[in-house]
Amino acid sequence: MNRVATVFISLTALFLVPFTLSGASVALIRITEDLDTTLAATQWVVNGYSATFAGFMLVTGSLADRYGRRRTFLAGVASFSVCALVSAVVTDIVLLDLARALAGIGAAATVTGASAMLAQVFTGAARTRIFGLFGATIGLGLAFGPTLAGLLMESFGWRSTFGLPGAIGLIALAFFRFLPDFRSAPGNAATGRMDWAGTTTFTLALMLLILVFVEGPELGWTSPLVLLALLGAVVLFPLFIRIERRAADPLLDLRLLTSSRFLGLCAANIAIVAVFGPLVVYLPSYFMSTQPVTAAQAGALVILLTGPMLVVPILCGMVTRWVSPSVQVIAALVLVGAGAAWFAATEEYAGPLLLMGVGIAIATGLLDGLAVSSMPAEQSGMAAGLFNTTKLTGETLGIAVIGAVLAARTSGTLAGPEYPAAMDLSLWVLGALCVGVAVLVAVLFRLSERQPVAASIGERDHSASVSSADS
After folding, report:
1. Residue limits of the Major facilitator superfamily (MFS) profile domain (predicted)?
2. In the chain, where are the structural domains located?
């Protein structure tokens, strides 16, 4: 095992995963024109990828714990890369949407496998630094996706925004021998039988919920498809909880949800990505509509939002000796909320985007490491899967809902004089969400100080094993 190679390979693959999400946003209009389809159908290039990415995150995290971190990571990178290359050559929007949805499953395995590997290889302060890089890499992929994709699209066409990441992913696979092959220790519950009942119900429930929010604004909230999907989600989520309570080796250890700190981190995560995701996806078209710029220049303007990720996450790790990570997380939410309100209230965009960018960068550099470290090491894959599921679900719903609002108010063109007012309305709502979640997170963090649940989980598991041995 080579630690440096493990970090390099993991972060390279991680960069590609969000890059194809944000990069695709620049190409939406071009894809619509080239494939002679509608904007609603083309939006599934982004929504389908995000939906499966979120829907399979918890499943792949559990697979990583049971069948090996490296195996899950490699399978994810392979499937992601192949589907990206397929996306680069298809000529039908349905096939493109399908390839992107399958790529999202590979992306989920890539992220959970990588995070579980890194959590096992590094400990203590080193783990904190590595997960700072982990979060920053994902953020940079989202951040510079529009810029790089704009340059690729103007030079080689929109297909290159999928073909290049696919090729790089396959090259990364060639160095798999440098990766550690950690599996659960003998006797660990994670080596037990896979909870397929829980896997099926959870994935279906989450996918149906996402479908409700993606298609609701387009088809109408009372359409048969939307109502049926909502009913399915309402039935399946309680069924999933019931299955997990009875399972010997559950997909999700429900005790994770008793940790106030973990719940607070998940809430902060959702709020941050619910702002960041829609902005990264729709700011390029917004700037192309409101400013005399090309696709590449519009992508470059998004750096005002994403640029702080180059520096701020590193600074956050340095100042933790003076300012606790908990305080930094709450401050990040307040900054993002204030920046969103500033953008909506004025015609200025540089200052508001920079302010939101700083807040997002603070959260990006801290949240992943804090979430994984808040749980026992043997549950790192499960914790990473659940945490990233909340992240991707928040991002997917944010992109879908804000995209539907923008499309509805611009008559499906993402252009015209109504676009600025539609964006302002969206940012008022997102800003209020961040401020409200900041208050909620502060309360949950305070409650967590009374009972460190991660430790109690470990103590209960240890007690159970001792009792079993004594008997």
Report:
1. 6-449
2. 3-180+251-470, 195-250
